Model the fold of this input.
Amino acid sequence: MTGKSKENFNSNYLNYIKTQDPPTQHFKNCAAAFGVGGLICCIGQFIRFMLEYAGLTGDELAGATSIILIFLGCFLTGLGVYDRIGRYAGAGSIVPITGFANSVTSPAIEFKTEGWIYGMAAKMFTVAGAIIVFGVFSGVLVGLVYFFI
Amino acid sequence: MSKKGNTVFFKNKPRIASYAAICGSKEKTGVIGEFADITLEDDMYEESTYEKAECKMLTNAISLAIEKGGLNEKDIDVLFSGDLLNQIISASFAARDYSFPFLGVYSACSTMSESIMLAAMLVNAGYVKHAVAATGSHFASAERQYRYPLELGCTRPPQAQWTVTGAGGCVIADVKNGVKITSATMGRVCDYGVTDVNNMGAAMAPVNGIIPP
Done:
């Protein structure tokens, strides 16, 4: 050790390795995320228009649009395309509903080798579990606030 | 005295009698590619899972190392091996196919060097004649063990490192030809507080001397 306290030493080391990391290209990443995320939203809107044209309205319309987008997310994950889009687009393909579909489908594919019940079904929510827990939790909180006011 | 600090010195100079390496297609294009005996055409190595592929690579590396040394299974006294998976399962399953005893080693990236050190110690002391040290890892199985599923559309930070797809083995023996093993240093565990799962290099190979004051 350098004669300093362990905490000091560790923070020095962590600061040092930060200077050695290749820099993240924030502008390029943001532009790619904006472009791809926007494109996914445009596709969603296009599907919505088409369904509206076909005669769906209200909740049915929103539900059907989501279902189609979720299907596309799962399907592209299964084909091994979605992770490539994700590598390029970052948050642009994680934030839309297709990203959530991907986070459920990808562990399901990965853990299929451990069996259908203890593998695929049990491990399916390893990534998405946190989103579901906090999603439901914040839903409860908002519901309580809404109930009292 | 054959030990100074944490370093042990081998008086009888055991040697690496023979060796073999198997690597994946990504590794083939790198600087170590030309030294591999076998290159995988596909990452599954004709198996149904990546874990089985890892195990098969390790088995083939051990067998090839023994074969290249002009030995057979009966000549080997002990196998030191390990890998990155839970319960060093690839190494244990690879050892299942052999009649010689198996001593499991878990030491993450330094599994190979630790195996060689332990094998050299036994050979130097004269307890065994031929010891095999081997290890293997697979990118896909390590990703699953430590990080995210392969198909998850997340980005890798620029400092992220890749786990090698490959396996290697060597026979350590008291012979006349081959690379001498003169000494080995036993490592301490140094935890400098790195918690980034994508930056294993910073966590596992910290160097005291390079840290600015």
Chain B has one domain: 13-149+161-179. The CA atoms of residues 85 and 145 of chain B lie 7 Å apart. The first strand of chain B starts at residue 3 and ends at 4.
